[in-house]
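Narrative summary of target 7.
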Amino acid sequence: MNRESELGELQRRLEELERSHRRLVVRHRAWRRWGIGFSGCAAAIVLCGAAANRLATIEAREFLLRDDAGVTRAALTIRADGTPGLGLYDRSGQVRLSLDLDGDGRGGVNLHDEAGTLLASVAVRPDGTPGLGLFGPRGQIRASLDVGRDGSSGVNVYDEVGTLRAAVAVRPDTTPAVGLFDVKGKIQRSVESAK
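Modeled conformation, tokenized:
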């Protein structure tokens, strides 16, 4: 595999990670809508527990945990698209950690800042490979770590608008490579090493 095709493969993996990030942002917005119903479910659980000595099964589409001030602190739900998710919230009711499964059962773990902006995500991509994304204050990708099905691995670094600027990769044949990109994401320089 030549340098340009290897870097093209890294760019393809990045685009997959960015698509995963966009799906996670949509899921995050859904979490906010689910916040109110969970406290009612939690109250029903407590009342059912008080009425019966033992419950073998509790069923619901959503569970919310609220603090003494009524702020949602955790939510476990089945979203409108049928996928499950768990969100943990800070004292102001802002999601800070979320765990998701997509429709195909691929998982993701997401960390958010105090404004709810996604800062880090570990996810399994559609091709079954893992990826780690680090995002800037506006949710734009800034760095990613990827492992390919072919045994390759790479680290990608992006500028403030999310354009790939540098990549370090180890190919399946264990050959390392470094690529530098211009402001449009086009390869400018690459360095390869023998095995």
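Residues 32-37 have pLDDT under 50 and may be disordered.
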